[in-house]
């Protein structure tokens, strides 16, 4: 956001809750240089509570004009998988991903309710542990496709 970031682009990891869910969805499959105008309903933004004491009122529909400047290797890269896989067993445990999330949250410096960590961790396993064994394999992690995400 150039308006909230002193005129500079905002960098974030897509799909891990660093922005509202509507932006995570709207920016999927964007390519560098692409522009989109998106309309995000309250249910995918700040809902009934609004944001920042009246800055965004309850039940607000948000409109964004997005330009994607660059994409860097992120959580779905082979390098990131290997970084998270502390014991090098080629599968990610709840403990390994939990530690990775804690490090990412500390890096971005945002204040979050402690329940957010558990919600994201549960969501990661619900969406990625396809065989239900309690681990996310390299195949389930999808390191072989969409490396730019």
Detailed description of the structure:
By secondary structure, the protein is an alpha+beta fold. The protein has 2 domains: 1-72, Chitinase A, domain 3 (Roll), CATH 3.10.50; 78-137, EF-hand (Recoverin, domain 1, Orthogonal Bundle). The strands form 2 sheets. The chain has a two-stranded antiparallel sheet. The two termini are 20 Å apart. The model is unreliable at 144-149 (pLDDT under 50). It is built from 5 helices and 4 strands.
What would the keywords be for this entry?
globular; Chitinase A, domain 3; 4 strands; 2 domains; 5 helices; Recoverin, domain 1; disordered C terminus; alpha+beta; 149 residues; two-stranded antiparallel ribbon
Taken as a percent bin, the fraction of beta residues is 5-15%
DSSP, total strands? 4
Question: How are the strands ordered across the major sheet?
Answer: 1-2
- Poorly predicted spans: 144-149
Indicate the structural class. Answer: alpha+beta
Overall CATH architecture of the largest domain: Roll
What would you call the shape? Answer: globular
Number of domains: 2
Helix share, percent: 25-40%
A few lines on this structure:
This protein is an alpha+beta fold. The chain folds into 2 domains: 72 residues, Roll (Chitinase A, domain 3), CATH 3.10.50; 60 residues, Recoverin, domain 1, CATH 1.10.238.10. Helix 3 crosses helix 4.
SSE topology sketch:
Blueprint: H1 21-26, E1 35-40, E2 62-67, H2 78-84, E3 91-92, H3 94-108, H4 114-128, E4 136-137, H5 138-141
Antiparallel strand pairs: 1-2, 3-4
Helix pairs in contact: 3-4
